[in-house]
Amino acid sequence: MMNRPALEAHPQPATQPRQPPDIESDWALFLDLDGTLLDLAPTPTSVVVPDGLVDVLRRLHHRLHGAVAIVTGRPLADIDQLLAPLVLPVAGNHGASARLPDGTQQALAPVQPLPPGWVTQAQAACAQWPGTIVEPKPYSLALHYRLAPEHADNVFNLLRCFAAERADDYEILTAHYAYELRPRHADKGMAIERLMALAPFHGRVPVFIGDDVTDESGRAAARRLGGIGLDVGESFSGSAAHVRQWLAKAVGDQDT
Ligand SMILES: [Mg+2]
Fold first, then answer.
1. Which of 17, 47, 70, 184 has its Cβ near the most Cβ atoms within 10 Å?
2. Ranges of CATH 3.30.70.1020 domains, the chain
3. Does the keyword Hydrolase apply (predicted)?
């Protein structure tokens, strides 16, 4: 059995704040969703959008003149469903696609749909491992084991077999109680760089917040562009509720 990669710590450079500074009006905010704005849930479909969050995001979007985007591993449609009626710029599918500030959708990387058969093979395998969950996405495949940690090695090894078939195109990401096979040629950092080239993001200070190792490219891009990359674990005690309180404070709502 292969050793699984350990969850890595990503210490922030000394110049990066550990405590989140107050949100400034010249920022461009890039926000991961699961584990950052929303509490993690046992399954991807059981997340809860807390009362008040959509209104806080709407008011932040107004305060920052539109420079608020969701940057997520989920497909774009998930975000619109979860944050309805709010429609924000989104980079989805780990940066493979985006809805730009003008509303147009665009592929950001030369990715292709998943090879046929992977999803059905994964579903057949995971049926033998109770508690594991297959989450097919347009360009990637996540296998969750939060409800069955004893099967972590099984789901990792299955994805490793798939990745070996297309080693140039796919890599395995380690997430919270999940592994995800995703295209090598897209990441959240690339998506942030693309959005930062466009109004109303261009010329602002990029600030990205994420909770997972999959977010490191986003944090790195924000720093590279002169901004701030924050980790929920380091700067918000690992609590999405603390992120929400920080955002709410910026728009004068202490109770959200
Ligand atoms: Mg996350």
1. 70
2. 118-183
3. yes
Residue 70 carries which DSSP code?
E
Looking at residue 150, its amino acid is E
Distance from C-alpha of 39 to C-alpha of 33, rounded to nearest angstrom: 9
Ligand 1 centroid vs 161 CA: distance in angstroms? 25
pTM for this structure? Answer: 0.85
32 counts as catalytic: yes
- CA nearest to 45, candidates 126, 128, 142: 142
- For the stretch 52-69, pLDDT in tens is 999 999 999 999 999 999
Output the CA 72–ligand 1 centroid distance in Å.
7
Rounded to an integer, what distance in angstroms lies between the CA atom of residue 57 and that of residue 218? 20
Catalytic residue among 22, 26, 32, 39: 32
The CATH code for residues 118-183 is: 3.30.70.1020
Distance 215 CA to ligand 1 centre (A): 7
- Name the strands in the sheet holding 27-31, side by side, starting at the edge strand that comes first in the sequence: 105-107, 97-99, 90-92, 68-71, 27-31, 205-210, 228-231
248 Cα: distance to centroid of ligand 1 (angstroms): 19
How far is Cα 171 from Cα 185, in angstroms, rounded to an integer?
A: 10
Given a contact cutoff of 8 angstroms between Cβ atoms, the answer to whether 212 and 175 are in contact is yes
pLDDT, one tens digit per residue, over 73-99 is: 999 999 999 999 999 999 999 899 999
Q: Is residue 7 pLDDT above 50, yes or no?
A: no
